[in-house]
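A quick aside before the break. I want you to see a complete sequence-to-structure record at least once, exactly as it would be stored in a machine-readable document. Don't worry about memorizing anything.
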Amino acid sequence: MQVSLLANSIWLDEELVGFRHLIVGLIDEQVRVAQVVPDNLPVDDAIPFGDRVSWEESGWGWLRRRRIAGLADELEKLEPDVIHALHHHLWEGTLELALDLEAAVVLQVTGEEEVQRALKLLPKLDPARVAFAVTTQPLATQLSERLPDSFMVRTIRPGVRIPTAEPDDKPTAHEPPLCALICGQTRHDTYYESLFVAIQKLIVDHPEVQFFLDAPTEADNALWQSARKLNILSNVSMVPHRLGHRELELGADVMIHPQPLHRSRTLTLQAMALGLPVIAHSDPCLDYLIDDQTAWLTDKADASRWEEMLRHLIIAPDSGEALGSRAREWVRENHLVSQHVADTIDLYRTLTGETIKFPG
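That is the input. The structure line, written in C-alpha cells, reads:
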C-alpha cells in the first residue's frame, strides 16, 4: 500500500511530533509513505524516510486547491492508494487530486469546524472512496449522526510517546516559582478575562509566578491590551510562534486551557504523558478531559475557580504531581502511538479493500 500524507503549516505547527511518529510507524508496518508538505518546511523537520513531495502554500482557498490538484503528475509516479488530508484547508484540493489519481481519501477531523465543513462538502463526497479519521469519540458521534450511514467514520485517537521513567524534577514546595503555559484560541473573550482576573489576584501573594501565552498572532494585541489593563504584564509573556516551538513549551509546570476549544490538541496529551498537571475549561468535544483524573476543570468563566486551582498547585504541589501521574496512566491506556498507527492502517485497508499481508 502507498499512502500520501498531505499536510500544511497550520497542521504541522500543532502536530509535528505526531506527524513524525505516524510516518515512522507506517513505514515500520511496511506501508510506503510520501510526505506531501509545504516547500518552506525545513529539512530538519521532515522525516528522512520515504518519499517527499513539496507544494507551495497560499492563503487563497481557490489557489490552494489548484496547487494541490496540480500535484497529480508528481504523485502519479508513486501510485498512491490513499491520500490522507490532515487539515480541513486541504480537503477540497485533495478530493480533486484523488479523483485524478483514482485514489481513496481520508479526511482528518479534529474539531467541530471540520464537522460543519464535511456537511457542506457532502454532495462532493463518495462514501465508497472517502472516510473520516476523527480524533475524539464525541466528535465522531457528532459527525456520524449527521452523515448518511454509508460513510465510514472512525475514531482514531492521537498517539503520544510515554516516557519510560518517572520525571526526576518532580515539583516540591521549595522549587522555583510556578511557570504556567496558557493555550487558547484566537479570540479574547470572557474566558480569557476570567483567567486574567485570577492571575491579577494571585500575583498579589505570589508576584514571582510566570505565565506564557501560546496564542495565534492575531490574538496577541487584544490579549496584551487586557493584560496591560489589569496590570499583569510583568507576569505574562507572549510565546513567539516558530515551527517546533510547542515542544519547548512542555517544560512548563502546568498547562492551562482557558476556553472550551471544541477541537483536540495533541499538545495537551503530550503534556499529560509527561505528567504535567492540566487545568482547563470543560469541553464536550474532548473525551480526554476528565475532571480530577486527567485534569482539573471549571464549567464556566469563573475567576475564583481559576484562582483556587492555581493557588492549590502552589501551596500543595504534591496534588498537582498526583494529577499528572493519573493523567499519564490514562494516556498510557488510551493514546499510545502503536495503537494510533494500527487504527490508521486498519482504516486505510478497510477503505481500499486491501487484505492484511502476513509474513511469509
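Two observations worth writing down. The CA atoms of residues 122 and 186 lie 28 Å apart. Confidence is low (pLDDT under 50) at residues 169-174. We'll return to this after the break.
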